[in-house]
Structures are given as C-alpha cells and as structure tokens.
Design brief:
Blueprint (H helix, E strand, L loop, with lengths): L20 H10 L5 H19 L3 H12 L3 E8 L2 E8 L2 H18 L5 H13 L4 H15 L10
Antiparallel strand pairs: 1-2
Helix pairs in contact: 1-2, 2-3, 2-5, 3-4, 3-5, 4-5, 4-6
Length: about 160
C-alpha cells in the first residue's frame, strides 16, 4: 500500500451573518454559475422569511429542518455471487446533512411561480414542521431500506 494518501477535507469558513458553516454550505449549493452574491442574498432572505414565519431564530429553524429531513438509513447496491442486492446501510453524518440539503434545494427549484427565496423559505419551514417534499423523500428512502431489511446481513461485505 505504498503511496496511500490520507484525504483531508477542505476547511469551510462560517458565513458572515449567522457564523455557521452549515449556512455556508447551503449558499454554495444554491449557487449557480459562480454567482455567489445572488446565492447569498437568496439564502439570507429565505432564512429571514422563515424566522419571521415561525418566530424563532433562523439558524435554529434551519438546523432543525435539516435534522428532520436527514435520512438515517439508505440502500446501496452490493454485488454478491452474481446477484445485486439493495443492502440497507446507515448514513454517515456528513452525507445525512448533504442529502437533506440537496432534497430541500431540489424541492425548492422544482416549485414554479415564486421567487427562489420564497420557495426555499417554504421548503425550510415545511421540513421544520416535518412535512414537505424533502420529508417525503426521506420517508421513501426509509421505506426502501425497510423493504430490503432481509439483505442487511450483506452490509459487512
């Protein structure tokens, strides 16, 4: 195993308003074609609207929404003896938040007829209340894992 390189993750700096790296990650995921200023405006306005709607701190709302939308188990394909099985496995913490964020953003982009900050605020609020498209996606993933529970013993291979 010569030359094995240890992987180091990039340091993500906290954002200016909430001093949170999670909000910075959201800004980076919202950003399209390098327009970071636009993405920053969208995220801050969405969090402000969610804060106004639920009358709680915006960062607390967002972190709780992520926690609600994050999956605990997922299915992964494993090829064993010529057959491919959908094996339920636990999700790593970084992937949990990444999936939750992705689902919230994709649900926001899929909705039409409103400005992005309003759509994002609606999705964050819905996830906070344990409803909405991101929660549906999480439940669907959990159902798949439950259906394939019989193959859980293949997870160690």
């Amino acid at each position: 195993m010569r030359g094995k390189v240890t992987r180091t993750s990039r340091i993500i700096l906290p954002d200016r308003v909430y001093h949170s790296t999670v909000v910075t990650k959201l800004i980076h995921r919202i950003m399209l074609r390098g327009q970071k200023a636009t993405a920053t405006t969208i995220v801050y306005k969405a969090l402000a609207k969610a804060e106004q709607t639920l009358s709680q701190p915006a960062l607390q709302i967002f972190e709780q929404a992520l926690k609600h939308a994050a999956p605990t188990v997922e299915v992964r394909s494993k090829r064993i003896g010529g057959a491919t099985y959908q094996v339920p496995m636990e999700v790593r913490p970084e992937r949990k938040s990444a999936l939750a964020m992705r689902w919230i953003i994709n649900a926001s982009r899929a909705t039409a007829g409103k400005p992005m900050q309003d759509k994002l605020a609606d999705q964050i609020t819905a996830a906070y209340k344990n409803e909405g498209a991101a929660i549906t996606k999480r439940d669907e993933m959990h159902r798949m894992a439950e259906a394939n529970k019989a193959f859980a013993h293949y997870a160690r291979f």
